[in-house]
Structures are given as structure tokens and as C-alpha cells.
Amino acid sequence: GDFSGQLLAYLSLGPIFIIVGFVTLIIFKRELHTISFLGGLVCNEGVNWLIKNVIREPRPCEEAHSTVTTKYGMPSSHSQFMWFFSVYSFLFLYLRMHQTNNARFLDLLWRHVLSICLVTVALLVSYSRVYLLYHTWSQVLYGGVAGSIMAIAWFAFTQEILTPLFPRIAAWPISEFFLIRDTSLIPNILWFEYTVTRAEARNRQRKLGTKLQ
Fold it and tell me: Which residues span the membrane (predicted)?
């Protein structure tokens, strides 16, 4: 009968939904930056596992959750995952996707709204781990700090080290075979894909109209 607990339990499944979303996005988009983002999430999980097994701080109520995969709780993997995702997405929105049209107000508005949503979800997922007795406040706090630091470091690594290599990687025969592409030089990929798709659709419509006449 605990509606809040049930809602928070569903929210704590956020990392699973995000991973499924990334796999789906990679299958359909096959873009190197998206692959790198997923690689950062996997690396972040590896760091979390390493820290947990070094510190070995137990969960607050080990006997209450017999299904957890590890008895260690410092730092919270959910909190670290969500803050990595949120901080990296924030950096991507404001540093990677630049303004390309005249709708400056609307462009900034949707970025601000999306950023607020990302932070809100990260906070709720972090809170859910304490509410559901999986972690203490300190475990959640350090998880958030670790995830944020990892996100900043991975974003810098991607921008400064990996991005210059993306054109070369995209030219590999195996990349061409799997249709893997590099869109790092396109400031706003959403706007670019929208305008290119719209122009191509209109062009095909004109050709179709000409044939039917």
C-alpha cells in the first residue's frame, strides 16, 4: 500500500531503461559519440564495482534485500550511474550542441527544461535508494559525486582524445560495413537531420509529382 515506495521502485529501474535506450539508439543510429557515451557508462560501472570492493562498506539493511548482487553499498551504483548520465548529458547539451538557427529563446528553453528534468530524475533515483533501504545518505552522496566526476572526465576524454580520432575510425572498413558514422563536426545533429530529411522528402515529392504528370 506504499504508493511512494512503489513509484520510487519503478524510478530506480531508470538505469535499465537508459541502457536499453542506448542499445536501441546505437542499433538504429550507429553514431560514434553515442557509442562512446555508452562506453563511458560501462566504464563508470566498472569504477563503481572497484570502489565498492575496496571500501567494502555494507548496506544499511542487508537482510531486507536478499536479491541484491553485492552486499557492499559504498558508493551507490544507481546514484553514480544516474549522475554520470545526467552530468554528461548536461555537458553535451550546452557544450556539444550549439545554436544553428534563429530560434535562440526556444533553443535555450528546451535545453533548460531537459536539464532540469535530468537533475530531477537523478535526485529522485538517488533518494529512492535511501527510501527503499538499499543505501545510506552518504553512500548515495558519494555515488553522485563519483558519477559527476566520471562524467566530466569522460566528456573531456571524448572531446579531446576520441573526437579527433572519430573520422579515422569511421573510415575503417569494419565501420563502413556496419554503417558506423561520425557526426562530431555537425553542431546540432537534431536540427541537421531534420533539415536534411525535410529537404530530401520535398525533393522526392517533387520528382514523384513530375512523374505522375
Answer: 7-28, 81-97, 109-128, 140-158
**Measured at the alpha carbon of residue 58, what is the angle toward residues 56 and 61, in degrees to the nearest 5?**
170
| Segment 18-40, tens digit of pLDDT | 889 888 988 888 888 889 999 99
46 and 113 Cβ atoms separated by less than 8 Å = no
Tens digit of each residue's pLDDT (9 = 90 or more) over 90-107? 998 888 776 555 557 677
Q: Which of 74, 69, 83, 94 is CA-nearest to residue 124?
A: 83
Scanning the chain, the segments in alpha helix (DSSP H) are: 3-11, 14-29, 32-55, 77-91, 104-131, 137-157, 166-170, 173-177, 189-212
Sign of torsion, CA 44 47 51 52? positive
Distance of alpha carbon 141 from alpha carbon 138, whole angstroms: 5
| Residue 186, all three cell numbers | 555537425
Nearest to 87 by CA among 118, 124, 60, 50: 118
Residue type, 33: H
Q: Which is more confidently placed, 71 or 74?
A: 74
pLDDT at 182: 86
The domain limits of the chain are: 3-182, 187-212
